[in-house]
Design a protein that fits this description.
about 150 residues, alpha/beta, four-stranded parallel sheet, two-stranded parallel sheet, 6 helices, 6 strands, globular
Length: about 150
C-alpha cells in the first residue's frame, strides 16, 4: 500500500479483513494509527521490495510526480502487480512499459493515467493483445492466455 490517508487506510483495513498481510509506505502516516489497524509501516524501498501487489493511494505532488519510474521498478519483486487509483502522474508511463515488457511488472490496473492518447500508445506498443476495462467489461481472458492485460476502470 502506497499512501495511508482516507482511501489508503480503508483499502488496507479491507485487505486485513480478507486475511492479507498489509504493509504501507506513507511518510505522513501516524504509526499508532497504522498499528491500531494491524498495518506495518515500512520505508518506500522496503515496500517496493516486499510487495506482491502495490496499490497506489497518493496525491500528485512534486515529490510523487513519476515516483514509480525505472529506478523504482528495479527494486520490486519480479512479477509484481500494480493498481493505480491515485493520480496518473505518479507512474512514469514509458518506464512502466519497459517494466511490463521485461516481465518485472506482471500486470497493472489503473483508472487514472496522464492522457488517453499516451495510454493507447502504451497499449499498442506492447505487441500483445491488451484488454482495456470500462465500467462494463468481459472477464474471460481464456482466448488470449499469454497476453498482457491492462485494466482501465
Amino acid at each position: 500500500m502506497m499512501g495511508f490517508g482516507k482511501v489508503g487506510s480503508e483499502v488496507a483495513r479491507r485487505g486485513k479483513g480478507l486475511g492479507m498481510h498489509v504493509i504501507t509506505y506513507d511518510p505522513y502516516a501516524a504509526v499508532d494509527r497504522a498499528h491500531a489497524l494491524g498495518i506495518e509501516l515500512v520505508s518506500f524501498d522496503e515496500a517496493l521490495s516486499r510487495a506482491d501487489f502495490i496499490s497506489l493511494h497518493m496525491p500528485l505532488t512534486p515529490d510523487t510526480d513519476k515516483l514509480f519510474n525505472a529506478k523504482s521498478f528495479a527494486k520490486v519483486k519480479r512479477g509484481v502487480r500494480i493498481i493505480n487509483v491515485a493520480r496518473g502522474g505518479v507512474i512514469d508511463e514509458d518506464d512502466l512499459l519497459e517494466a511490463l515488457e521485461s516481465g518485472v511488472v506482471a500486470q497493472v490496473k489503473f483508472n487514472v493515467y496522464l492522457s488517453s492518447f499516451k495510454c493507447l500508445l502504451i497499449f499498442y506498443s506492447l505487441r500483445a493483445l491488451i484488454f482495456v476495462w470500462s465500467h462494463v467489461c468481459m472477464e474471460d481472458h481464456s482466448f488470449y492466455p499469454e497476453a498482457h492485460y491492462i485494466h482501465v476502470c
